[in-house]
Design goal:
Blueprint lengths: L2 E7 H7 L2 H11 L12 H12 L5 E7 L2 E11 L8 E2 L4 H4 L3 E9 L8 H10 L6 E6 L4 H8 L3 E7 L7 E7 L5
Parallel strand pairs: 5-6
Antiparallel strand pairs: 1-2, 2-3, 3-5, 4-7, 6-8, 7-8
Length: 179
């Protein structure tokens, strides 16, 4: 079977944030470098994600194979002036001053990696977005970090999003160059 992609917004996105997606998330966050750390526990994931789902512009893209989720990505707009929270280095002035789209999660189970599905999830998430920049957090030791760099994302700082979280790199994609 092929992988199908479903783009959801509003109440449909919030309703889709269920135990099935939490299982996908937990399987991925059990892998190094995450190793099921405190930030990556099911309850914390569902709690923060349900709050984010209520934000204007929240979008969820789910990849399914045979009706079962194998990956997902979601994000929300950061208006001009907004930047990452927690212990964060200042962002580039021109990026912070602009509207941007924050990719909060991009997750794909191991068996589906290396097939272009992660890139497609990200592409579906950013499709049609008007913001000139996209931003995300990535652990520098995660395999995904090198993939983001290959896709054109640049490290612009660091962020510890919660007191019990590891430091992540803040990455930015200048979408004006790829339109």
């Amino acid at each position: 079977m092929g992988v199908d992609f479903h783009r959801l917004t509003g109440e449909a996105a919030a309703a889709a944030l269920d135990d099935e997606l939490a299982e996908v998330y937990m399987a991925i966050r059990a892998e190094p470098p995450y190793n099921s750390g405190p930030l990556y526990q099911r309850d914390r994931f569902l709690d923060r994600t349900r709050k984010q789902a209520g934000s204007p512009g929240f979008t969820l893209v789910v990849a399914e194979d045979g009706g079962a989720p194998v990956g997902f990505a979601f994000g929300l707009p950061f208006p001009a002036g907004r930047w990452w929270g927690g212990e964060t280095t200042p962002g580039p002035a021109e990026v912070v001053a602009a509207d941007k789209y924050a990719v909060i999660e991009l997750n794909l189970v191991k068996e589906y990696r290396g097939q272009g599905i992660g890139g497609r999830l990200l592409g579906e998430l950013l499709e049609g977005r008007p913001e000139p920049y996209a931003t995300l957090l990535s652990r520098p030791e995660a395999a995904a970090h090198a993939i983001y760099e290959h896709w054109g994302w640049k490290v612009v700082g660091t962020c510890r999003p919660a007191p019990d979280a590891e430091v992540a790199d803040v990455m930015v994609l200048d979408r004006r160059r790829i339109r």
